[in-house]
What we know:
Distance between the termini: 39 Å
Order of helices and strands: HHEEH
Helix content: 55-70%
Number of domains: 1
Strand order of the largest sheet: 1-2
Number of helices: 3
Strand content: 5-15%
Amino acid sequence: xxxxxxxxxxxxRLGISLRLLEDLIARHAAPQHIWLxxxxxxxxxxxxxxxxxxxxxxxxxxxx
Length: 64
C-alpha cells in the first residue's frame, strides 16, 4: 500500500497554497481524499491519476 500524503504535501505537489487547496476541496475540484480521524489524507497514486485526467480534460477543451 502506498504511503498516504497530507494536505501540505499535496499542496506542495500541486504547486499551490494550502488555502487554495482548501478552496478546491470545498468546490469538489481537488483529488478525492479519505478521512483518518480528523485529518484528510490522499493516496499519491490517485493524485497522479487525477492529474492525468485533468491534463487530458484541459487538452481536450483547448482542442475544441
